[in-house]
Amino acid sequence: MKAILTTIGKDQVGIIAGVSQFLAEKKINILDVSQTIMDGYFTMMMMVEINDEKADFTALSEELGGIGKKLGVEIKIRREEIYHAMHQL
Amino acid sequence: METEKIIETIHMISDENLDVRTITMGISLLDCIDSDSTRACERIYNKIMTKAKNLVKVGEQIEAEYGIPIINKRISVTPISIIAAASADQNYLKYAQTLDRAAKELGVNFIGGFSALVQKGYQTGDLKLIRSLPQVLDETDLVCASVNVGSTRSGINMDAVAEMGKIIKDASERSFMTNTKMVVFCNAVEDNPFMAGAFHGVGERDTVINVGVSGPGVVKHALENVRGESMDVVAETIKQTAFKVTRMGQLVGTIAAERLGVPFGIVDLSLAPTPAVGDSVAQILEEIGLESVGTHGTTAALALLNDAVKKGGIMACSHVGGLSGAFIPVSEDAGMIAAVNAGTLNIEKLEAMTAVCSVGLDMIAIPGDTPADTISAMIADEAAIGMINNKTTAVRILPIQNKKVGETVEFGGLLGYAPIMGVNKASSTRMIARGGLIPAPIHSFKN
Predict the structure, then answer these.
(1) Chain B interface disruption, residue of A2, A34, A83, A89, most B CBs within 10 A
(2) Which of A3, A59, B77, B357 has the fewest CB atoms within 10 Å distance of its CB?
(3) Which helix (H) or strand (E) holds B7?
(4) B244: closest chain A residue by CA
(5) Number of domains chain B is built from
(6) CATH superfamily of the domain spanning A2-87
(7) Has residue B43 been placed in a domain?
């Protein structure tokens, strides 16, 4: 399944490295990355592919939250359908 | 996907309290009817436990995967007055306890359907159910009750209206929380996912998933960007926002139904406030341009809001149902509470607002010494508004023992807190004592 991982917060060294390293450990493939500064905040979107259809999102979200805390950013992961549903017919 | 759109969705969820207010599983109990109430209750318990086994788990999975809060997982069942009518029991507490036990074991937030539909008169089980209400509401925790006393097609059953005034009063003397779990309806709908008024209508499928969306904060935020623009722009902005909110409800409902192996029923497009900061319908009305909700212009602003929400949502989902519109509960809305405390909002204005919103007098605390006949008369007024305007109206009024106007009562959680509001002191006793049926209005004869 595809999911969108968003990272928002104050820019600092090591954010992309920290997030990608975690994803690599979890064998989650990064399909696309975009990164920008919005309203002064570092904003990164990653489209990722999770091969395990039964992946435990609760645990995944918690672990990402923990990494976000260390890096001083907010990391969220959501299945992509929610964004399509809201903005596309 | 465009970055801005992703960010917009994230803001709606994180900062503007966008959520799915409820996933409600409707379960028919018609196949549980038995003249032996013990056997009937056993069947009811087994059916609910089987059908809703995974409801909470699936709700939590969806929350985790899609990052969208689903505040309540609930169950609604066929009105118990119909199910229990075959038994010789004189009190239906046993049925309510069965529902309560099933709800607790499943971990759902509420179970609705301890209900009777008496708009034209009583059938065998109806009066027994109604007279069980004070005890049921007091002795169970998660059971929600409703009584439909009127409809556009049938008129208003004034005997039931008189009875419900006494029941509400009696229930309030047992505990101040009892009446938060009971609604008196006119034109009750059969697929409403919201409590306390949810029940599973007899015309529905055996089991169904209905979803109620919310998001007053999202609408308020969108309107902040169009300050000073014309009412056309206000309506258009609300429509577009309601569309997005509803699409999310449709997605969540579809997934939930699929995973539970149950047909998807409807999305209820409602703006349901909570006491949380920034989750208020009153503040939307104030954003439209009122200094305080309740002042002149409130009814017009609410009419626009209610209509625009429906128009925006209706194309966003496959089937619309339930109550669909703006809710105006006093205790659950920080802006409403503030307006009552400031003296700008009173019961009379709330009654006018119910003519154009999706519900009625909701979560309004009144002095505990209010006579039962006065409560009945308030129900009659609301039912009349519903009957004449072809809309659902509801009364969830809360007499609070030993409290006077200006004091406050705390319900806790999503139910919030409420200032005690004044009611008209003049008596309605002679009218309520008449009983009988107010005939259906002329415009109901459409055939």
Answers:
(1) A83
(2) A59
(3) helix B3-14
(4) A86
(5) 2
(6) ACT domain (3.30.70.260)
(7) yes
Contact B67 A61 (CB under 8 A): yes
Residue B399 and residue B254 share a domain: yes
User: pLDDT for A20-65, tens place per residue?
Assistant: 999 999 899 999 999 888 878 889 999 999 987 777 888 899 999 9
Query: What is the domain range of residue B319?
Result: 211-444
**3-class SS of residue B54:** coil
Q: What is the pLDDT of residues B380-389, one digit of tens each?
A: 999 999 999 9
Give me the interface pTM, i.e. the ipTM.
0.88
What is d(CA A24, CA A21) in angstroms, rounded to the nearest whole number? 5
CB contact at 8 A, B264 and B251: no
Residue B334 phi, psi (nearest 5):
-55, -35
Sorting pLDDT into bands at 50, 70 and 90, what band is B134? very high
Same-domain status, B367 and B262: yes
- B174 and B221 in a single domain? The answer is no
Residue keyed to tokens 């975009």: A34
pLDDT at A56 (0 to 100): 85
For the whole model, what pTM was predicted? 0.93
Q: Which two tokens stand for residue A24?
A: 């690599």
Our CA-based measurement puts residue B25 at a distance from the nearest CA of chain A, in whole angstroms, of 22
Distance CA B381, CA B431 (A): 12
Same domain, B221 and B164: no
When the pLDDT of each residue in chain B is averaged and rounded to a whole number, the result is: 95
Residues B376 and B413 reside in one and the same domain: yes
